[in-house]
Amino acid sequence: MVQNDIGQRFHFEALGIRGEYVRLDQTWAALCALHPYPSAAAALLGEALAAAALLSGTLKYPGTLTLQAAGDGALRAVMAEVRETRALRGIVRFRDDDAALPPIAAPLNHLGEGLLTLTLRPPKGEPHQGIVRLGGDHLADAVERYFEQSEQLPTRLWLSTTHGVQGLLLQALPGGDCGSEGFERLAIMASTVKDQELAELDAQTLLKRLFPEDDIRLHPPRPLAFECTCSRERTQETLAAMAPDTLEEILREDGEILMTCQFCQARYRFDPIDFALLNQSAAPKASGPH
Ligand SMILES: [Zn+2]
């Protein structure tokens, strides 16, 4: 059965604990079809997408949430971005394209020593950024430590990339009076979740299975999908910021400038006429012909 990608919020209202469920099977499949990643890199990308989508579901206002883990290992970095809690994109960067990347149970280890950075860009105002050292075997460990250190909010995540990509999050509400006992009890119950259950069950069935005794308010699902922010206009802006001499040389040799989006592989072509028009529009108005 085809299930669309969704995020779904839930609350244990009596306990002051919130949760989030995400399914990103199609987004992940689309990204992996664009980039033929080794399985360990694909798994780490799936974990990053799920973690970013889970965290974006806890935001009070729509903005852009970016999760980036970068290290000194065979993998240079993994990045996942969620805009307005609905549109996702992500990428894995390699230190060396030919590096051996054996499939391992803990793909985070391919990043080596490094940092996890969470950036939140609200619709207005300054971005907020938090950084924590990578550690543990899974991305979820680093995210949990981030919330422990910087937000002092008990947070647990379960990320699965075994059959598609799914994730589950539990978090004590700020100012809630759940007490650590209530949170720990739910976390222990959630820890019994199996990859197969995450892959096969919908949120309602899954939550009933994991927390049969608790009252849960399950909110309606919100759609999530892969979507890139690139455009011909943005690519033009990038070109305008590059050295004209370099671009003219490329035009002389290749007859066109070809820009490929690193996220979605969309190609933007600029021939000499496009380039001339681009330069004209970039020139100061006073000096242009009228
Ligand atoms: Zn793109």
Q: Can I get a quick summary?
A:
This protein has nine helices and 14 strands. It is an alpha+beta fold and 290 residues long.
CATH architecture of the largest domain: 3-Layer(bab) Sandwich
Low-confidence stretches: 285-290
Instruction: Provide the residue-averaged pLDDT.
Output: 90
By helix and strand content, what is the structural category? alpha+beta
Q: How would you characterize the largest beta sheet?
A: 6 strands, antiparallel
| Count of helix runs | 9
> What's the total count of β strands?
14
| Distance N to C terminus | 61 Å
Classified in CATH, the superfamily of the largest domain is Hsp33 domain
- CATH class category of the largest domain: Alpha Beta
Percent of residues in β-strands: 25-35%
| Ligands, ions, cofactors | zinc ion
The total domain count is 2
Shape: elongated
Please tell me how large the radius of gyration is.
Answer: 22 Å
CATH topology of the largest domain: Hsp33 domain
Q: Which percent range fits the helix content?
A: 25-40%
**Helix/strand order, N-terminal first:** EEHHEEEEEHEEHHHEEEHHEEH
Q: What does the model show?
A:
Helix content is 34%, strand content 28%. The protein has 290 residues and is α+β, with helices and mostly antiparallel strands. The chain folds into two domains: 221 residues, Hsp33 domain; 56 residues, CBS domain Like (Alpha-Beta Complex), CATH 3.90.1280.10. The strands form three sheets. Strands 1, 2, 8, 9, 10 and 11 form a six-stranded antiparallel beta sheet that branches. A six-stranded mixed beta sheet has the order 7-6-3-4-5-12, with helices on one face. The longest helix is centred in the first third of the chain and has 18 residues. The protein is elongated, with a radius of gyration of 22 Å. The protein starts with 5 loop residues before the first strand and ends in an 8-residue tail after the last helix. Bound molecules: zinc ion. The site of zinc ion (ZN) has 6 residues, from loops.
